[in-house]
Write a structure and sequence with these properties.
- This protein has helices at residues 2-27, 29-33, 42-48, 145-152; strands at 55-66, 70-80, 87-98, 101-109, 122-124, 129-139, 158-167, 176-184.
- It is α+β, with helices and mostly antiparallel strands and 185 residues long.
- The strands form 2 sheets. Strands 3, 4, 5, 7 and 8 form a 5-stranded antiparallel beta sheet that branches. A 3-stranded antiparallel beta sheet has the order 1-2-6, with no helix packed on it.
- β7 (158-167) and β8 (176-184) form a beta hairpin.
- The longest helix has 26 residues, at 2-27.
- It is elongated and about 85 Å long.
- The chain starts with a helix and ends with a strand.
Length: 185
């Protein structure tokens, strides 16, 4: 009989621990229980603080090469972390428009898929900025000769419309976020 009581108690403790681990980080209880200070562990601080949106600025684009069949467009974005914890920049993906016509797609990084080893990501430390550069290969499909002529003459007006994917994975919890953008050049 004592073994059954011990077993039930052990199962109850395990369920309670799992409940705390699963529910507590997202419930906001930690935010009300602790006041962060210099001795608060970083992982606990990231659970306790609200995440401010990632800052994204367009730092320009240029046509680095253009021919009759293809072109390369170099695009720069300045990513800023306004938070007190590190953000993981997983991916920035966008469509490129020239004179209102979709001409290609650019991408930096890839989405987090569960393991750090299999993902290409950029850790952006607290209150820091990073400029990322993406070279996008554009292929002339022959359907828009006016747009391609504008590219060759460096007279195209560009628009970049996309989404940045970032997260706050820590030892206690992780949350994924997105930030949409739309820039004209």
């Amino acid at each position: 009989m004592e073994k059954k009581i011990f077993l039930y108690a052990a199962v109850g403790v395990i369920i309670a621990i799992l409940g705390v681990v699963a529910i507590l980080p997202s419930s906001g209880v930690l935010k009300n229980m602790f006041t962060p200070n210099a001795s608060t562990p970083t992982a606990l601080t990231s659970v306790m603080t609200e995440v401010k949106p990632l800052g994204i600025q367009f730092n320009g684009s240029s046509i680095s090469s253009v021919g009759d069949r293809d072109a390369t467009i170099e695009t720069k974005f300045n990513l800023t972390n306004p938070n007190d914890n590190t953000l993981i920049i997983e991916m920035v993906t966008y469509d490129i428009y020239a004179n209102g016509v979709t001409i290609g797609h650019g991408q930096y990084g890839q989405r987090y898929d569960g393991t750090w080893e299999s993902s290409s990501y950029l850790p952006l430390t607290q209150h820091n900025s990073e400029i990322i550069t993406v070279d996008t290969q554009i292929v002339n499909d022959g359907n828009n000769p006016q747009v391609w002529s504008a590219l060759q003459n460096h007279a195209a007006k560009f628009r970049f419309n996309g989404t940045a994917y970032y997260s706050t994975h820590s030892a206690f919890a992780g949350q994924s976020y997105t930030k949409d953008f739309d820039f004209l050049q």
